[in-house]
Amino acid sequence: MGKRAAEDHGAGSKKKYRFSTGIVEPCVSGIYATCARKHEKQAAQELADLFQEKVEEYYGDEELNNGNGESELEKELSVEDQINKELESLKSQNTDPRNKELLRFVDLNCECVVFCKTRKPIVPEKFVHRIMQEFADPKTSHKRTRYVQKLTPVSFSCNASLSELSKLAQRVLEPHFHRKDSPPLKFAIEVVRRNFNTIDKLEIIKAVAKEVGKDGEMPHTVDLKNYDKLVLVECFKNNIGMSVVDSDYRDALKKYNIQQIFLAKIHPDSNEDSTSTTK
């Protein structure tokens, strides 16, 4: 009876995505999303459908099949190291089939928040930015989501300690602030903490700001309103995630808040200051 009912229910229904329960472990990339209270599962399903469609659209079959492209560090590995790395990768895939998934949602057991882990070739900063640009396009009238509110990319994450935070910042900030040809930039830092009291917010800001300027070596300056780059720091339980977004984040893309983007299309004159208070 139960089996038959399950089969009948599955006919013609949407694909159901895997959810893992627990925490966000260190050394992962992904996307946080806020949503309407008590609709976390529905929001995750909405995003799973949207993200899967955009992954296929943005990256295509060829890149997805070869999505674990070599980084500069991997290219410098010896032949023996590369072989060992490939063997470890194959072993990991054989022992955990979830490793083959580009998108995997984590049930955080936290109201109004969901998290989607991502794998290469997805780059959360670029992936989310492109989606939000499409939503902000005046030609786009279909909202696609009902419960999802704001998206926050996480380029990489670490355990919650100041030493690990500094290492994380060096890794995430380098392509934005530390290139040899990097011009002086105005920057700001935004910290969001959920179920997190390991490190004080001000300590996090100081540590990240220190790494942005390379302890005074780089001529970048703080500008909380008219920044060129904004460093997003997401703290959840024992995990700290980080990414960097551009100046269009605040106004043009409404802090990546899907609800606010479409509200601005309906009432363009009444929504100018709404993003300043949106979390």
From TrEMBL:
Gene3D superfamilies: THUMP superfamily
Entry annotated with the keyword RNA-binding: yes
GO MF: RNA binding
One Pfam match: THUMP
Residue span(s) of domain THUMP: 136-246
Origin superkingdom: Eukaryota
UniProt keywords, alphabetically: RNA-binding
GO biological process per UniProt: tRNA acetylation
Keyword RNA-binding in record: yes
Protein name as catalogued: LALA0S06e08064g1_1
Species in which this protein is naturally found: Lachancea lanzarotensis
